[in-house]
């Protein structure tokens, strides 16, 4: 309660200061000049009614008057007349009560006659004038605050627009650089392929597989949408081939007949296969890893299985799999099931199930021709 009162005083300290100075002037200074002082209860009661009139007029009456520009010309005089009438009656009732309590000694002071009404009318109009000035000052400050806020918002919008334009320029530059870098990369691979084709055909095949896989990854990442599954299966085979060239690894692909014609979002199979090579132990013949793709009447399935590489497991993260989950959920909401984890026996499994009805949706695309010219 004390904190509330303290906060109220802080927020209204200017009002309290001005009223304090005004009341001090009218009660003490004028009293000293005239030699006439009233009873404290008289001051308290009448200044309370004056303060009520002041704030009711400024905060409620005038906002209602000017709420509609069409009616203010008759609302204003009627409102002022009503307020003054209430103020005269309230002042009379206060004086009557003070007289009944033997606080007010002058009997003429509280008789509701013309003289009393005119004196009180002057007093009421006097404070209504100050209240009207306060209303216009308050309105001006509020409008200025709104104007300043709108100006700040406009400047912020200009700044954000400039930042967005700068980001667009940077993105355009990055796009141009991205176009140049792959172009240089694939031209180099093409050069290497043609120069080693006759000397080392196996190396040339590896270069061709690498080029095809990289072109696919770059094109699929930029275009988006869905692709024919057979296109990505081909790149998975390239990826397996590239790893097998360096070292014998035990992994098999089980691709059911007909799945190549399905259209799915790109880079799912490549990411899963790369995950197997990155985190799996493929050097044990008895623990052959596999990537299996098949379907039934209602669903399409992708499954992987591999022995966990215990050395890498301690530092690995599931960022790639987490991204797959987000992409699948975005592409096939309420039509996909995605699970992965260890089986508790040093093996890692991934299972994806997508409703066949969901595979009919989406925009299809085919990536550009990826093969290096082998002629």
UniProtKB/TrEMBL annotation:
Record-annotated Signal transduction histidine kinase internal region domain positions: 172-247
UniProt enzyme class = transferase
Q: Which InterPro entries does UniProt cross-reference here?
A: Bact_2-comp_sensor_kinase (IPR050640), Sig_transdc_His_kin_internal (IPR010559)
**Residues annotated as transmembrane:** 16-38, 44-66, 78-100, 120-137
Any idea which GO molecular function terms this record carries?
A: protein histidine kinase activity
Q: Which E.C. number(s) belong to this protein? A: 2.7.13.3
Which superkingdom does the taxonomy of this entry point to? Bacteria
For this UniProt record, give its keywords in alphabetical order, as a comma-separated list.
Kinase, Membrane, Transferase, Transmembrane, Transmembrane helix
Under PANTHER family, the record lists: SENSOR HISTIDINE KINASE YPDA
Name of the protein described by the UniProt record: Two-component system LytT family sensor kinase
Source organism: Mucilaginibacter terrae
């Amino acid at each position: 309660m004390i904190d509330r009162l303290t906060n109220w005083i802080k927020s209204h300290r200017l009002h309290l200061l001005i009223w304090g100075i005004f009341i001090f002037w009218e009660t003490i200074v004028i009293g000293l000049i005239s030699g006439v002082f009233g009873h404290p209860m008289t001051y308290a009661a009448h200044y309370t009614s004056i303060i009520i009139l002041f704030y009711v007029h400024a905060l409620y009456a005038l906002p209602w008057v000017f709420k509609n520009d069409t009616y203010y010309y008759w609302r204003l005089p009627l409102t002022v007349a009503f307020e003054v009438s209430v103020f005269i009656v309230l002042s009379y009732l206060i004086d009557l009560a003070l007289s009944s309590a033997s606080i007010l000694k002058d009997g003429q002071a509280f008789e509701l006659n013309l003289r009393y009404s005119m004196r009180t009318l002057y007093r009421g109009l006097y404070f209504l004038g100050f209240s009207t000035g306060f209303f216009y000052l308050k309105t001006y400050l509020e409008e200025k605050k709104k104007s300043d806020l709108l100006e700040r918002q406009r400047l912020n919008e200009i700044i954000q627009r400039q930042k967005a334009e700068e980001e667009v320029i940077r993105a355009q530059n990055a796009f141009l650089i991205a176009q140049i870098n792959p172009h240089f990369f694939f031209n180099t691979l093409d050069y290497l392929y043609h120069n080693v084709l006759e000397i080392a055909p196996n190396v040339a095949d590896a270069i061709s597989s690498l080029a095809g896989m990289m072109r696919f990854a770059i094109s699929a990442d930029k275009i988006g949408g869905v692709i024919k599954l057979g296109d990505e299966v081909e790149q998975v085979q390239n990826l397996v081939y590239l790893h097998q060239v360096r070292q014998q690894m035990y992994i098999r692909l089980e691709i059911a007949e007909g799945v190549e014609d399905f259209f799915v979002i790109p880079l799912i199979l490549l990411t899963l296969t790369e995950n197997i090579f990155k985190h799996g132990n493929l050097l044990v013949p008895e623990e052959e890893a596999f990537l299996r793709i098949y379907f039934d009447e209602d669903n399409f399935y992708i499954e992987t299985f591999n022995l966990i590489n215990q050395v890498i497991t301690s530092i690995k993260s599931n960022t790639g799999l987490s991204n797959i989950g987000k992409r699948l959920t975005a592409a096939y909401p309420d039509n996909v099931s995605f699970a992965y984890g260890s089986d508790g026996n040093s093996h890692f499994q991934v299972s994806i199930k997508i409703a066949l009805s969901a595979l009919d949706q989406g925009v299809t695309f085919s990536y550009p021709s990826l093969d290096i010219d082998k002629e």
